[in-house]
Amino acid sequence: MSFARRSRRALFLGQTAAGRFICNCGARHWTCCRNRGVRFCFAAARSARPNSIVTSRLVPESSLSSEGARPDFLKRLRDAATQFALSDGLIWLHLLKTACAALTALGIAMTLELPTPPVAMLTVFVLMQPVTGMVLAKCFYRVLGTAAGAMAAVLFGAIFPQQPELYLAVLTLWTATCTALAVRFRHFRWYAFVLAGYTAVLIGIPVVTHPDALFVAAMTRAAEVTIGILCSAAFSALVFPVRASTALMLGQRQRRGAMLELCADVLASRCDDASFQRRFAGLAGGIAGFEAARTFASYEDPNLRMRSRRLTAIDSEFASLCSRLHVLEQQIERLECAGTNALIADVSPVLRQAAALIDRLHDERRETTDPEPLTALARLAASLAPAPPLSPRAGQASERGASIDEARTMREALRRLIGNVLSYLDAEAGPAPVDRPSRATLPPTRTSAYVVALTFVRNALTVGAASAFWLLTAWPSGEFAVIAAAIVSGLTSAAPRPEKVSMQIALGATAAVALGYVYLCFVYPAIDGFPLLCAVLAPILAGSAWLATRPPVSGYGIGLCVFFVVLAGPENAMRYAPDALLNNGLAAVSALVVAVLMAALAFPLQTPWVVGRIQRDLRREVAFAWTTRLEGADARFHARTHDLSSQLRMLLVPGTRRYDEAWHWLLATLELGQTLLDLRTNLGALVSADPSDRHGWARCVEHAGRRVADLFERPDARRAALAVRAAERALQRVGAQTRRTARGPRQLALERLSGDLYLMRSALLDYDAPFHRHDASHA
């Protein structure tokens, strides 16, 4: 038999047997040669040589299917279960815990024969969150808010007995003041103020004509809320708890990797402008989220409270690193736009070296960072130390004088970025404090005064209109209108689109009235006993909680559960009065519609003048960076700036002209604000060492800083030109002082000050900056 016939016979062996072809290449192949109707190994045929024979064998299909089938199935089942547990499983767990905790609170309140057991169930619904730390934090602020609201209701009732007009007026002002103060705080601290506002209404309105019952109403309300708080905390912390500290540590590692990756991509020119803006916005927007996760985790882990100062330092270093990265990216973009190819080619090796070292840090998968790239980065930063400036004559004679200045600016920006990377990694890897636990100072918040004022006026008019309607018409169900107005005013105070959330709550309340009628007329009379009551209430609670966990439709869940419990919640002595339910529901929905109109027509937050005022407050943070005290100035500046920028991002639609304008102002504020902070730090060190400098070149530096602050206060082309000239004059004076100073620490400090001025001048000369495109009439 010839070689070709022997090879074909070996390859096509098994024409009469059904099975999977296994050849000497070690693979299982299902490739079918249709024209011959056999199973064929193309891999073996391609690899066969003329002087070799391919051997093969047939394995029965049954034996192959049983081999490894069970482990593969179990592995796929385990992977699917893990994926479900990490995604939808957490949601179902949250719904189950919410329903069980709410029904448990309802049962305890009914057993104790409290007057309004649904309040305990409603408290659980409001408090329950997917993460244990969030529930504990909200419980803490719920206690504070309930206590403040109860005391206010009793106090106002004692001051204005048998005077419902004055009592309603002071309750309206109290509610509006609390909701206005709430918008000045982040996370669940706002919840304490909101709760203090509408708790006074919930306690005082039902007994407004019976002031002698105020104290008893406040005490029973506190007891019902306490039951709800205890049930929420117990179920969240003891039944399959989801720890915020775990999410915090995971988020910290992910944020570290994303930042190092972005730094390396910018240095290696692997990131275009659109991609940089998208990724940078995500990292900058996550600063407040990290601080929120740290706050929540501190309520469930005492050890984390002891490390609060370290975590605050990590967040501060991360915010500074964001500013440094933006400064460097702007320098690279300016050089590319200017077409200085020779300078780019001269600096590129250093950028690529830094990118390679940061890539090694990003590729590190262990908790401890490899010290070798850290040491190499430190050496690279030391090699980028600023050199003494050239004399004016030499700089003017050289044709590359401008290029030398740009090179100095680029190297200084790169040196500071590397320094911030090392500081951030050092803060992240630093040991936890072992001394007594100290409470870290909370980052300051910054909310536009116009937003606070608009919130106060809008909520005062909403609650005041409902109160006046009740007094004028003497409608028996008017109290529910006041209660609904107070609730919706508080819950939508921190929403970027209060009219949208109010409309969702109104529609949810309408559905609650319909469901309440069905339950009151058909469901409650048909059941007997607490187990059946739990069975019919569980779908309402779980469905409302599911809607509330979806931010786009959260208002529907809130309106459905809150007003179903308020209007048709089960009590120990049920009153089957459908007419009262419909009247109360009509009053509540009418008040919610009034709240929608007030938010949409009277005082919308998206109006251009409101956005313009918030944008002006954002620009004023540059002046804040120049005038605030230096101790802790970096953390305060970044916290306030990111607060205002997050408010603008919530109010504006991405892709619009106003959104792009606000984004460019944020970048300019971060760049020049950070530069002014560095300038003040280096200038303060020099002047404190030699006070006589205050009347020399230091005054030129201070004048340049004031010019920049004035530019951001009232941006126009004239002030931009004045700021550029002031920066250049200060740069000349500092350069002359540096050349007259002997080599030593003082000259190094002067060189660092020159680096600050170079960065300032470069940012001011950027013609894409927003202050070159806006005059004072648009400010």
UniProtKB/TrEMBL annotation:
GO terms for molecular function: transmembrane transporter activity. It is a multi-pass membrane protein. Keywords: Cell membrane, Membrane, Transmembrane, Transmembrane helix. It holds the Pfam family FUSC. The keyword Transmembrane helix applies. It is found in: Cell membrane. GO terms for cellular component: plasma membrane. The chain crosses the membrane at residues 90-112, 118-136, 143-160, 166-183, 190-207, 227-250, 449-472, 501-522, 553-569, 581-605. The keyword Cytoplasm does not apply. InterPro entries: PHBA_efflux_AaeB/fusaric-R. PANTHER family: BLR3852 PROTEIN, P-HYDROXYBENZOIC ACID EFFLUX PUMP SUBUNIT-RELATED. This is FUSC family protein. It comes from Trinickia dabaoshanensis.
